[in-house]
Batch of 2 targets.
Target 1
Amino acid sequence: MLQVQPHYALAGLNTFGMQVYAARYATFDREEELAGLQQEPAAAAGILVLGGGSNMLFTGDVPQLVVHNRIKGIVKLREDGQHVWLQVGAGEIWHELVLYAVAAGYAGIENLSLIPGTVGAAPIQNIGAYGVEAKDVIEAVRYYDIASGAFTVLGNEDCRFAYRDSIFKRELKNKVIITAVTFRLNKIPVFNTSYGNIQQELDAMGVTELSIRAISDAVIRIRSSKLPDPREIGNAGSFFKNPEVDTDLYLALKAQYPTIPGYALPGHITKIPAGWLIEQCGWKGYRKDNYGVHKLQALVLVNYGGASGQDIADLSLTIMNSVAERFGIQLEREVQII
Ligand SMILES: Cc1cc2nc3c(=O)[nH]c(=O)nc-3n(C[C@H](O)[C@H](O)[C@H](O)COP(=O)(O)OP(=O)(O)OC[C@H]3O[C@@H](n4cnc5c(N)ncnc54)[C@H](O)[C@@H]3O)c2cc1C
């Protein structure tokens, strides 16, 4: 049975720092507490699952019942000579799982160090950074189906992972509550230092022998120097996805804008950094009143304090329109607008 609280302040529970209220709010730290959730009178206006609030922009008070996932626990299910399988409670903090894996010598998620949020949200947008995505290590996702009250386990293939995408952002959006994720990590590490400036950072750190910890430390150093800390400036990381376009369109743009960066993907597709497109449109460092675009990261929209979520959502649309007008590319938001 959930302990539901009315008119609950969400200001400290979202990294944009939006000062909004949930009409009703409850936390849960055991799967059993979810039984009969659909029948709760408080759920009549719908249910919103909250993890770390680091991929959300609240544009106003939330009429739904906000259920805050706090299910903890890391259980080693099994291991063989090469791999270890961990079942992790969805309310565990993602970076704490990374630190646990680093300390235990389990490889696979060290490149994903310092990504904010919970383990349960990691499969939703298939979090990724520095050449690694959550889908590379997720074996299965366990969820509670709100309508039926049943628990289901989906295997990796059935999660339909793609770049910042999965079945949880599509058919199952707002219909399920992820309660646990099973990861298969490597006891024999395969290091990935080719992406971004990891190697450069390792060199600067004087690392001569690669290790899981060295890579995690390098990623932490790079991220801390590049991304605004939400405790200081409200933000939700990259606000937009990097668009993947037909390579013919990319080449046509390259003829016109020779410095446009692009990364070739299979299937005649090229990924273009959204930050570059936004910067070219003159938005980097833009500020209006108490919100704007970060001065170092054109991909990051920020709340300098007391901004309204609607103003930031409107700014994101204006940016999308200006990129579409100039480059003929429709940006997509990565952040969930609530
Ligand atoms: C500074 C900063 C840097 C970031 N860098 C990266 C990065 O490098 N790569 C990256 O991929 N992301 C990045 N992000 C985005 C964010 O960290 C991830 O999307 C993260 O997975 C969100 O986790 P959360 O628990 O905060 O989710 P929330 O923001 O609480 O929720 C996000 C969405 O998932 C749903 N949800 C959450 N938990 C559950 C659950 N248990 N069951 C069902 N639905 C659920 C919510 O309803 C919502 O729709 C960054 C964010 C910030 C602030």
Target 2
Amino acid sequence: MKKLLVLTAFITGLSVQAQTDETATIKSIYTHALTKQQGYEWLRKLTGMGGRLAGSDEATEAVKAFQKVADSLGFTTQLQEVTVPHWVRGPKEAAYYTLNGQRYEVAVRALGGSIATPAEGLTAEVVEITSFEQLDTMTDELEGRIAFYNMPMDPAFINTFFAYGSAVKQRYVGALEASKKGAVGVVARSLSSSINPYPHTGSMTYAGADQQIPACAISTLHAEQLSRDLKANPKLEFFMQMAPRELDSVVSYNLVAEIKGSEKPEEVIVIGGHIDSWDLGTGAHDDGAGCMHSLDAVWLLKELDLLPKRTLRVVFFMNEEFGLNGAKVYAQRSKEEGIDHVIAMESDAGGFTPRGISMVAPDSIITRIRKLRDYLEPYGVHEFSETGAGADISQLKSDDLVMIGLRPDSHRYFEVHHSSQDVLAQVNARELELGSATLAALIYLLDKYDIVAL
Ligand SMILES: [Zn+2]
């Protein structure tokens, strides 16, 4: 054991004594997180306030409620005004098709930003599209018809975020591309890694489209069923009815909660997630978990008297889902105020068991962060990758900023993501708390050993 410690100490450049002390300190962080479960209690409070679609009262109320929480913990807080789009879903969507005289109801929900169908609904034949190459070869097949994108997430990916990334195009530009071929509507397969009856919504764009057409997500279960039935009857007619509207944009807020550093207050470590969510669930994993991870991590350090030399900022970013408005405002304001961010951390990949981190930083810093792995491995945190860090903090990107994203286990994330299933019951308190403790341990180690770019 001694030999191992000496070897590890040699690798990390720490003395054996320091190594032993740090191991105990980090253990205390994880123990406190698992024992108190404060982050989970806050997540209960947050999800109890409902879904937090950007522009909704619920989203703004959530920011204000957590400003009060942060105030009560002794943070210095501010709300930063953010102008956000205000899209509302309207009454529940309806869809069905008829086959051999029988009507089959299917679960659909409008994609975020979609226009409405005519009030009486839209009925048309359906053309299934299984690749964009196929779409490219189409001439008039989509004219007056509904484009049904049916491209499953590839189950071969170990990290499901890559499967999501390679399938998301059908949702994001599906309507835009189908409208160019004369389609009158879009039904896009939900981006879910399992077969389930829940539609998964998400953002889409009409940018550059001559013709806007309504677009909805269909559950994977019903996408499979529709695909089968289309083979039996390619002429079957599909009915969809939805009435979302784009209202005037509104003012909402980022929450910025700060604790001044004791020795290097001018250097700022920022950690955050996005407070807005989709409206179908309560955004428990996406990204209530990330916001609570961030607040919880700083709370843990404060409780255990481990606050860093540098200033800590927790930011709840408003409106990641509809265009990163909050992150852009935060970056702009920071620039104007001359805020010197040295480390930016983000949690926006769910509240499942943390498996690792992903880093964006100069090579020399990445080498040093990799050496911290020994401290976190006992807690299952061992995958140190360089595959981005986070959408919100990416707005702060600069050559000397160390960016880190938490990487929880991803296998179940896309079963709930953007659907009615993204609720507190899907979050395990221990798994969530391990994420908070991991972020707290990282802040502690990075600050203590000055693992920042100079
Ligand atoms: Zn998110």
